[in-house]
Automatic annotation (TrEMBL):
EC number from the UniProt entry: 2.7.13.3
Enzyme class: transferase
PROSITE patterns: HIS_KIN (PS50109)
Organism: Zobellia barbeyronii
Coiled coil start-end: 157-187
This protein's UniProt keywords: ATP-binding, Coiled coil, Kinase, Nucleotide-binding, Phosphoprotein, Transferase
Name by which UniProt lists this protein: histidine kinase
One MF annotation (Gene Ontology) recorded for this entry: ATP binding
Lineage: Bacteria, Pseudomonadati, Bacteroidota, Flavobacteriia, Flavobacteriales
Length: 408
């Protein structure tokens, strides 16, 4: 018997095989179907998807064979991966000196073998798709062509599995990076608040005690310090809210009575005498994360108030249930939003209005926070608007699925 030699790029080949993380995984129907089809097409009792590890050949799928692996030194496939045309056919192993004394031939009575290489990146072979028989055999060109096609399908499955695995890892890395970024923003914003409050306090003291002794330029400088500090304070508060907005547990739900929700909204915005807020719904209650829903609505309604240009502000909140979602609509009678800006407004730090109803400029964080919370609850948010005709913000969140008798 002559044992097969290692591939000329064995180290690289083994590293590539390891990158698929496929060895010693469970049997899978997709691979099992391919080996069954290979046996049917080639008329052989045995077919195997073999992956060649350092000292063994391991079978990802096997038909007509009871073992999951054998020693590589006894393998036919160890020869196949070194074939320049990626195909090896042995019509009768009993008369081939390479397999004289090989237990696979003598004990398992494997006489016929045909294998096609499974090639990964740069043509490096991972293993083979092979068919075996207990008697000498010849395959037709159409059977060999089908075997090659099936081997391509095996590689497609392996590559798809690898890409899925890489995508899952990339998603996990991205989630980790986002968490670290949120934590950094929260810590940085929190640490900035204390010295900033000191600046605001000192500037107020400076104005109260020393303003009479200052000229107009000095007073203007103090006013600039105060206004800049207040702007920065709003920005830091917004960043803190944004960093915390992804921390809601989607499963942390409670029953929210819509009468209580309307009461909360009226209490918060009751000081706006020129503002009317109506709540419309056929529902008596919803089952959702109360804190998250309130934060979304408060942000949207506050925006509708701040950027409204009418003497009388009219806001309507409508709540519906659609399939497995609750749908919320917040309508206002404000100036509307230009079509070109309707995507920008949900991006952090994007500000499209020079100033609000009270002469202040926004931070561009509020709607980005709303979007983050909505998507964290498994929903989506959008806006429909025309200039001069107000805007309607629509967002959804998942609602609990109630099983009917026909679904159980």
């Amino acid at each position: 018997m002559i044992a097969p030699k290692n591939h000329e790029h064995e180290a690289e080949r083994l590293a590539l095989l390891e990158s698929y993380a496929i060895l010693d995984t469970e049997l899978e129907e997709d691979y099992d179907n391919l080996v069954l089809l290979a046996s049917e097409i080639c008329g052989t009792p045995i077919s195997v998807i073999t992956l060649l590890d350092k000292d063994r050949q391991w079978f990802k799928a096997h038909h007509g064979l009871d073992v999951a692996e054998t020693e590589r030194q006894y393998s036919f496939c160890g020869y196949t991966i070194n074939e320049p045309d990626n195909l090896l056919i042995i019509e009768d192993a009993r008369v081939d000196e390479r397999f004289n004394g090989n237990p696979v031939v003598e004990d398992a009575n494997v006489v016929f073998y045909a294998g096609v290489t499974l090639n990964g990146a740069n043509g490096l072979p991972l293993g083979t798709l092979c068919v075996l028989d207990h008697e000498p055999k010849q395959l037709s060109e159409s059977q060999l062509s089908a075997l090659r096609i099936l081997s391509d399908q095996v590689m497609n499955l392996l590559d798809l599995r690898k890409k899925k695995m890489e995508l899952e890892k990339a998603n996990e890395d991205l989630k980790l990076a986002n968490r670290e970024l949120d934590n950094f923003a929260a810590v940085a914003a929190h640490d900035l608040k204390s010295p900033l409050n000191n600046i605001i306090t000192l500037s107020n003291c400076l104005e109260d005690f020393y303003a009479p002794k200052m000229d107009d330029e000095g007073k203007q400088i103090i006013e600039f310090i105060k206004s800049s500090s207040e702007t920065l304070k709003k920005l830091i508060t917004g960043l803190l809210n944004y960093s915390k907005s992804g921390q809601f547990n989607i499963d942390d739900k409670t029953t929210i009575l819509l009468t209580d929700l309307q009461k909360t909204i009226n209490e918060l915005f009751g000081g706006q005498k020129e503002c009317t807020i109506k709540v419309k719904s056929n529902l008596e209650s919803i089952y959702a994360n109360k804190i998250a829903v309130e934060q979304i609505l408060i942000n949207l309604i506050a925006n509708a108030v701040k950027y409204n240009d009418k003497p009388s502000i009219e806001i309507e909140l409508e709540i519906r249930e659609q399939d497995a979602f609750y749908e919320f609509l917040v309508k206002d009678n404000g100036p509307g939003i230009h079509e070109d800006d309707q995507e920008k407004i949900f991006k952090i730090f994007e500000v499209i209005s020079e100033q609000d109803r009270y002469g202040e400029k926004g931070t561009g964080i509020g709607l980005a926070t709303v979007k983050k919370v909505v998507e964290g609850l498994g929903g989506n948010i959008s806006v429909l608007s025309q200039l001069g005709e107000g805007a309607t913000f629509t967002f959804t969140i998942k609602s609990p699925i109630v099983l009917t008798p026909t679904m159980v």
